[in-house]
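Open question from group meeting: does this chain pack into something compact, or does most of it stay loose? Before anyone orders reagents, we agreed to write out a predicted structure and look at it together. Recording both the input and the output here so the notebook holds the full record.
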Amino acid sequence: MSLAGIENEDQLELALSEPGPEAIAAMRDVPGDIALLGCGGKMGPTLARMALRATEAAGVSRRVIAVSRFSDAAVRDRLESWGVETCSGDLLDEEFLRSLPDVPNVIYMAGRKFGAAGNLPLTWAMNVHLPALVAQRYSDSRLIAFSTGNVYGTVDRRTGGSVESDEPNPVGEYAMSCLGRERMFQHFSDVQSTPTVLLRLNYACEFRYGVLVDLAEQVASGQTIDLAMSYVNVIWQGDANSRTLAALPLAESPAKLLNLAGPEILRVRDVCERLGELLGHPVRYTGDENDDALLNSAVEADAQWGPPRVGVDDLLQGIAAWLQRGGERLGKPTHFEVRDGTF
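Structure tokens returned:
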């Protein structure tokens, strides 16, 4: 899959919602409507659109329903223009949660990260209490729930990254609350026999946000790059979307754990040097490099579906070209460089 020629947001969102063969196969094999809870964020809209496109490509019919507060009305309008149904409300409102349609497939995307340290009770309510409510509300559905590689803690890059069988070692209350989210879904999968997959993601990236965009913006503006978090792995958001849909047939009880990540462990210094070449800027650094970082191994997912469609250098070239033409950005830094777990 080539990212060359993407010049505007319409083209970008079309690329981000292009389903891979694994997503189309899943939409053919898994019957019934799909609800995406917490769908108004960075990944949700293009994932919902991909579900519709994969459904059409599979030659079947289903409703795709996006649920969010939709604080940005333009996001809701865009979803509806694509044919996605929408429901607006606060998922922590149990009456609203009960009012949502009964569907056999649920993708759970709600959560709180940025600003987590500023209101820790709300962070725990969103990341632990709400998953328990959702798991009970949709006890008879197939559940896919997003988690994060932060639950593993840092590992030495020479290990190849954390694998699904590793014991969690979360650092900071955000990561702890994300492990709490997993535990709620695992508990209700056990006691209700709800088929579930927990997706540990590190890190989805496109042209408007992500780790590589953070680094590209710093390089382009002449900022000094902090090398404290010296390694990272990323995955094109379109590939993360496709694998999310493809995970639906894998749902089981007890809940299945699955890493979503790129196949490579990237050295931040090397990434910045390449961005410096593409953007025509020298790069300055500060701090010492460390061998440990938040890293996921995607060996299991790659064995299931093969390598991602988009390689890192294609993504870097696309991001650099996007920045040079003044393309829209979301203004939501990932803070991937944080080592103490405080977000």
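Observations to bring back to the group:
Residues 172-192 form the longest helix (21 residues).
Residues 36 and 311 are 27 Å apart (CA to CA).
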